[in-house]
Amino acid sequence: DFINVGEVEVGMIATRSTVGMETRLTQRALVRASDLLYFNFSLVSPAPRKGRVEDDPECRRVVDLFGRIIDTVSLIDQERIKEEQAQRLYRTRLLLMRFNETNLRNALVPEQWWRLQRDGKDIGYSYVVEEVASDLPRRGMATGPDPKGNGVRVGVRSRAYPEPGVQVDTETWIYVSFDRRNEVWSNIGVISGPDGKKEEFGEFGFADREIKRVLDPQGEPGEQRPDGSFDAGQPPLRVADRYTLSVTRTGHGARPPREIDLPPFYLPQALNHLLCRLVDLNEPKTFLFASWISDRGEVMKRYIDVGAETTVTLDGKKLRAIPIRDRVGYEGSPTVHYMSPDRRYLGAVNEESRITILASDKATLERIWKNADLTRPGVVERK
Fold first, then answer.
1. What gap in Å lies between CA 328 and CA 271, rounded to an integer?
2. For 242, phi and psi rounded to 5 degrees?
3. Are 10 and 4 in contact (CB under 8 A)?
4. Which of 136, 150, 56, 139 is nearest to 101 (CA)?
5. The CA-based dihedral angle spanning residues 89, 91, 92, 94, taken in that order and rounded to the nearest 10 degrees
6. Is residue 153 within a helix (H) or strand (E), and if so which, with residue range?
7. pTM exceeding 0.85
8. DSSP-derived secondary structure for 43-104
9. Are 320 and 310 in contact (CB under 8 A)?
10. Torsional sign, CA 5, 10, 14, 20
11. Which residue has the higher pLDDT, 111 or 142?
């Protein structure tokens, strides 16, 4: 059948099919967005093997349900979204120019302590160190901060109790050079279950930006030699900037190694960590980055919205703060970070997961957690 839902053209298909001992009714709606783009909606439900489908009360109910669902279909104007993304990327490009050595050094906080809460109850903590260095702290090498280093290094030791009897310990090191051309990180952890069993997991990644000569199908063949003569036998080449990320997972949740081409607006892990202290807090602005999301195992778009200074309630206290909405994907669940007017990180809230992060201090964590491990994360095995 062919119908119109408002101004949207929809083709409706219904089939009854038998697979083994099951008979199914499949309803499908093909929604036309353009000559080249269609959206496919399907609903599969049980059906009688014999007789008319129209005579079965359950089938009539399912057909009516699918019809009411299709009646709600409307096409969103993608041009508006594309234009918003373009404006975000324009501001991101200007912001990345401010991520220089001086600003990165000034953003570092040598030590931080964070509380992790769910529904107002403490379920874990983190100890964070930030310093100038030239690599991860590897075994057999100097492991402390290096004021003459060529990049930023962040270490995080965390412990969480996501479920009764389950303990998750992680040690994370992330590094990025001041010019953002090189990045490396190591994240290892152990999950201890109520039965005493332990599962280890790890994630190791590195990204490099390289200038390479690549074939140019649009170019002219030939190349000028150092002595000034012309070599007509050379294929057409052009200089290209290639930015790639490689990620390997081990142990719990292991996956084959992945290599991903990165967009120019990719944000390394260390800058993800520092981002709230690097953006301009003086006026509301929106940005768009690409970030590696470990939970998804993908490089995804990350939307950042800097809000206006307002009064918020954190840990039962009213504070003046600048909210920064951070979401992965256009319709992702937002985490709202809060920065003080003097650029101190106050905490973050995700209402969907009911998780809250609060800036704290060593004495508070040791009072809440008698066996708190607030030592510097260990060195990384050489790889």
1. 16
2. -105, 130
3. yes
4. 150
5. 130
6. strand 151-160
7. no
8. EEEE--SSS-GGG-HHHHHHHHHHHHHHTT-----HHHHHHHHHHHHHHHHHHHTT--HHHH
9. yes
10. negative
11. 111
Question: Which of the four pLDDT bands, split at 50, 70 and 90, describes residue 383?
Answer: low
Strands 167-177 and 151-160 turn out to be antiparallel
CA atoms of 339 and 310, how far apart (whole Å):
11
Q: Which amino acid is at 252?
A: H
Measured at the alpha carbon of residue 307, what is the angle toward residues 330 and 270, in degrees to the nearest 5? Answer: 65
- Token pair, residue 331, equals 């319709």
Residue found under tokens 């709230």: 276
In this structure, the strands spanning 8-19 and 22-32 are: antiparallel
Query: Can you spell out the DSSP letters for 298-322?
Result: EEEEEEEEE---EEEEETTEEEEEE
Tens of pLDDT, residue by residue over 51-85, are 888 899 999 999 999 999 999 988 877 788 889 99
What residue type is 177 in one-letter code?
S
Least confidently predicted of 197-201, 254-258, 313-317, 361-365: 254-258
Annotate 90-125 with b (16+ C-beta within 10 A) or e (fewer). ebbeebbeebeeeebeebbeeebbbbbbeeeebbbb
